[in-house]
Protein backbone atom coordinates (compact mmCIF):
# COMPACT_ATOMS: atom_id res chain seq x y z
CA UNK A 1 0.00 0.00 0.00
CA UNK A 2 1.39 3.47 -0.82
CA UNK A 3 2.88 5.17 2.24
CA UNK A 4 0.56 8.18 2.07
CA UNK A 5 -2.63 6.18 1.48
CA UNK A 6 -4.92 6.07 4.55
CA UNK A 7 -5.66 2.56 5.82
CA UNK A 8 -9.30 1.61 5.32
CA UNK A 9 -11.36 0.64 8.34
CA UNK A 10 -12.90 -2.81 8.67
CA UNK A 11 -16.33 -1.18 8.32
CA UNK A 12 -15.33 0.44 5.02
CA UNK A 13 -13.97 -2.88 3.76
CA UNK A 14 -17.24 -4.60 4.75
CA UNK A 15 -19.18 -2.06 2.70
CA UNK A 16 -16.86 -2.36 -0.31
CA UNK A 17 -16.91 -6.16 -0.30
CA UNK A 18 -20.69 -6.16 0.18
CA UNK A 19 -21.11 -3.87 -2.84
CA UNK A 20 -18.81 -6.04 -4.94
CA UNK A 21 -20.53 -9.22 -3.79
CA UNK A 22 -23.98 -7.79 -4.51
CA UNK A 23 -23.20 -6.30 -7.93
CA UNK A 24 -21.18 -9.04 -9.60
CA UNK A 25 -21.11 -12.80 -9.88
CA UNK A 26 -19.35 -15.61 -11.67
CA UNK A 27 -15.71 -15.74 -12.58
CA UNK A 28 -15.41 -11.98 -12.95
CA UNK A 29 -15.10 -11.19 -9.25
CA UNK A 30 -11.30 -11.24 -9.34
CA UNK A 31 -11.45 -8.56 -12.02
CA UNK A 32 -13.67 -6.39 -9.83
CA UNK A 33 -11.31 -6.84 -6.89
CA UNK A 34 -8.33 -5.85 -9.07
CA UNK A 35 -10.12 -2.73 -10.30
CA UNK A 36 -11.37 -1.75 -6.84
CA UNK A 37 -8.26 -2.27 -4.70
CA UNK A 38 -5.40 -1.78 -7.20
CA UNK A 39 -6.57 0.49 -9.99
CA UNK A 40 -9.19 2.71 -8.34
CA UNK A 41 -8.11 2.97 -4.69
CA UNK A 42 -4.37 2.22 -4.98
CA UNK A 43 -4.46 0.30 -1.69
CA UNK A 44 -2.51 -2.63 -3.16
CA UNK A 45 0.12 -2.82 -5.86
CA UNK A 46 -0.55 -5.02 -8.88
CA UNK A 47 2.23 -7.36 -7.74
CA UNK A 48 0.74 -7.68 -4.23
CA UNK A 49 -2.68 -8.37 -5.72
CA UNK A 50 -1.40 -11.06 -8.09
CA UNK A 51 0.57 -12.71 -5.27
CA UNK A 52 -2.57 -12.72 -3.14
CA UNK A 53 -4.58 -14.13 -6.04
CA UNK A 54 -2.06 -16.93 -6.53
CA UNK A 55 -2.19 -17.75 -2.82
CA UNK A 56 -6.00 -17.63 -2.83
CA UNK A 57 -6.16 -20.02 -5.76
CA UNK A 58 -3.72 -22.43 -4.11
CA UNK A 59 -5.72 -22.62 -0.87
CA UNK A 60 -8.79 -24.83 -0.53
CA UNK A 61 -12.18 -23.17 -0.83
CA UNK A 62 -13.69 -20.51 -3.01
CA UNK A 63 -11.00 -18.29 -4.58
CA UNK A 64 -12.92 -15.03 -4.16
CA UNK A 65 -13.68 -15.74 -0.52
CA UNK A 66 -10.00 -16.50 0.07
CA UNK A 67 -9.06 -13.32 -1.77
CA UNK A 68 -11.49 -11.20 0.28
CA UNK A 69 -10.01 -12.58 3.50
CA UNK A 70 -6.46 -11.98 2.26
CA UNK A 71 -7.17 -8.41 1.11
CA UNK A 72 -9.05 -7.62 4.31
CA UNK A 73 -6.21 -8.94 6.45
CA UNK A 74 -3.57 -7.15 4.37
CA UNK A 75 -5.38 -3.81 4.69
CA UNK A 76 -6.94 -3.94 8.17
CA UNK A 77 -5.64 -6.98 10.06
CA UNK A 78 -7.91 -9.63 11.60
CA UNK A 79 -10.95 -7.33 11.69
CA UNK A 80 -10.41 -6.62 7.99
CA UNK A 81 -10.23 -10.35 7.23
CA UNK A 82 -13.57 -10.89 9.00
CA UNK A 83 -15.06 -7.88 7.19
CA UNK A 84 -13.85 -9.19 3.82
CA UNK A 85 -15.33 -12.62 4.49
CA UNK A 86 -18.66 -11.30 5.78
CA UNK A 87 -19.00 -8.70 3.02
CA UNK A 88 -18.31 -11.07 0.13
CA UNK A 89 -20.41 -13.97 1.51
CA UNK A 90 -23.36 -12.85 3.66
CA UNK A 91 -25.18 -10.20 1.58
CA UNK A 92 -24.92 -12.20 -1.67
CA UNK A 93 -26.07 -15.38 0.09
CA UNK A 94 -29.16 -13.56 1.35
CA UNK A 95 -29.91 -12.25 -2.15
CA UNK A 96 -29.35 -15.70 -3.68
CA UNK A 97 -32.05 -17.19 -1.49
CA UNK A 98 -34.47 -14.43 -2.47
CA UNK A 99 -33.55 -14.79 -6.15
CA UNK A 100 -34.04 -18.56 -6.06
CA UNK A 101 -37.60 -18.03 -4.92
CA UNK A 102 -38.22 -15.41 -7.62
CA UNK A 103 -36.34 -17.33 -10.31
CA UNK A 104 -38.52 -20.38 -9.82
CA UNK A 105 -41.42 -18.16 -10.93
CA UNK A 106 -39.56 -16.61 -13.92
CA UNK A 107 -38.20 -19.71 -15.70
CA UNK A 108 -41.13 -19.75 -18.11
CA UNK A 109 -40.18 -16.39 -19.68
CA UNK A 110 -37.62 -16.22 -22.56
CA UNK A 111 -36.22 -12.92 -21.27
CA UNK A 112 -34.81 -14.80 -18.27
CA UNK A 113 -32.52 -16.87 -20.51
CA UNK A 114 -31.40 -13.76 -22.41
CA UNK A 115 -30.55 -11.92 -19.19
CA UNK A 116 -28.54 -14.87 -17.87
CA UNK A 117 -26.64 -15.20 -21.16
CA UNK A 118 -25.71 -11.50 -20.97
CA UNK A 119 -24.53 -11.85 -17.37
CA UNK A 120 -22.43 -14.89 -18.34
CA UNK A 121 -20.81 -12.93 -21.18
CA UNK A 122 -19.90 -10.11 -18.78
CA UNK A 123 -18.35 -12.58 -16.32
CA UNK A 124 -16.30 -14.17 -19.11
CA UNK A 125 -15.05 -10.72 -20.17
CA UNK A 126 -13.95 -9.87 -16.62
CA UNK A 127 -12.20 -13.25 -16.30
CA UNK A 128 -10.40 -12.69 -19.61
CA UNK A 129 -9.31 -9.23 -18.44
CA UNK A 130 -7.89 -10.75 -15.25
CA UNK A 131 -6.07 -13.48 -17.21
CA UNK A 132 -4.51 -10.91 -19.55
CA UNK A 133 -3.37 -8.78 -16.61
CA UNK A 134 -1.79 -11.80 -14.92
CA UNK A 135 -0.19 -13.06 -18.16
CA UNK A 136 1.49 -9.71 -18.77
CA UNK A 137 3.24 -9.94 -15.39
CA UNK A 138 4.47 -13.55 -15.63
CA UNK A 139 8.18 -13.77 -16.41
CA UNK A 140 8.88 -15.58 -19.67
CA UNK A 141 11.06 -18.47 -18.54
CA UNK A 142 11.24 -21.97 -19.98
CA UNK A 143 10.26 -23.95 -16.88
CA UNK A 144 6.90 -22.22 -16.18
CA UNK A 145 5.97 -22.59 -19.84
CA UNK A 146 6.95 -26.26 -19.72
CA UNK A 147 4.78 -26.76 -16.60
CA UNK A 148 1.89 -25.04 -18.34
CA UNK A 149 2.18 -27.27 -21.40
CA UNK A 150 2.64 -30.44 -19.32
CA UNK A 151 -0.41 -29.63 -17.17
CA UNK A 152 -2.51 -28.93 -20.24
CA UNK A 153 -1.46 -32.21 -21.85
CA UNK A 154 -1.95 -34.25 -18.67
CA UNK A 155 -5.43 -32.89 -17.88
CA UNK A 156 -6.77 -31.76 -21.26
CA UNK A 157 -5.45 -34.47 -23.54
CA UNK A 158 -4.64 -37.50 -21.38
CA UNK A 159 -7.49 -36.87 -18.87
CA UNK A 160 -5.33 -37.59 -15.83
CA UNK A 161 -6.94 -36.68 -12.47
CA UNK A 162 -6.73 -32.92 -11.93
CA UNK A 163 -5.97 -33.25 -8.22
CA UNK A 164 -2.84 -35.35 -8.75
CA UNK A 165 -1.61 -33.32 -11.71
CA UNK A 166 -1.96 -30.05 -9.80
CA UNK A 167 -0.37 -31.47 -6.65
CA UNK A 168 2.56 -32.91 -8.63
CA UNK A 169 3.11 -29.92 -10.90
CA UNK A 170 2.56 -27.50 -8.02
CA UNK A 171 5.09 -29.25 -5.77
CA UNK A 172 7.63 -29.41 -8.59
CA UNK A 173 7.08 -25.73 -9.48
CA UNK A 174 7.48 -24.61 -5.87
CA UNK A 175 10.67 -26.66 -5.49
CA UNK A 176 12.20 -25.30 -8.70
CA UNK A 177 11.24 -21.69 -7.86
CA UNK A 178 12.55 -22.07 -4.30
CA UNK A 179 15.86 -23.38 -5.62
CA UNK A 180 16.04 -20.58 -8.19
CA UNK A 181 15.38 -17.88 -5.58
CA UNK A 182 17.66 -19.35 -2.94
CA UNK A 183 20.53 -19.45 -5.43
CA UNK A 184 20.13 -15.70 -5.90
CA UNK A 185 18.98 -16.00 -9.51
CA UNK A 186 16.24 -13.52 -10.41
CA UNK A 187 15.83 -11.86 -7.00
From TrEMBL:
Principal subcellular localization: membrane
Keyword list, A-Z: Cell membrane, Membrane, Transmembrane, Transmembrane helix
UniProt xrefs under InterPro entries: CHR_Transporter, Chromate_transpt
Subcellular location: Cell membrane
PANTHER family referenced in this protein's UniProt entry, alphabetically: CHROMATE TRANSPORT PROTEIN-RELATED, CHROMATE TRANSPORTER
Membrane-protein topology: Multi-pass membrane protein
Organism of this sequence: Pigmentiphaga soli
Protein name, as recorded: Chromate transporter
Family: Belongs to the chromate ion transporter (CHR) (TC 2.A.51) family.
Sequence intervals crossing the membrane: 12-34, 75-103, 109-133, 145-167
Cross-referenced Pfam families: Chromate_transp
Source taxon at top rank: Bacteria
Amino acid sequence: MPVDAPRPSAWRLLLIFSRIGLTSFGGGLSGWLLREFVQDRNWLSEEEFLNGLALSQALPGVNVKNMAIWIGFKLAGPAGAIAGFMGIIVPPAFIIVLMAVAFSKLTDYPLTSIALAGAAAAAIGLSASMAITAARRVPRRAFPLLCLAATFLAVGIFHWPLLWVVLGAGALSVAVEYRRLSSGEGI
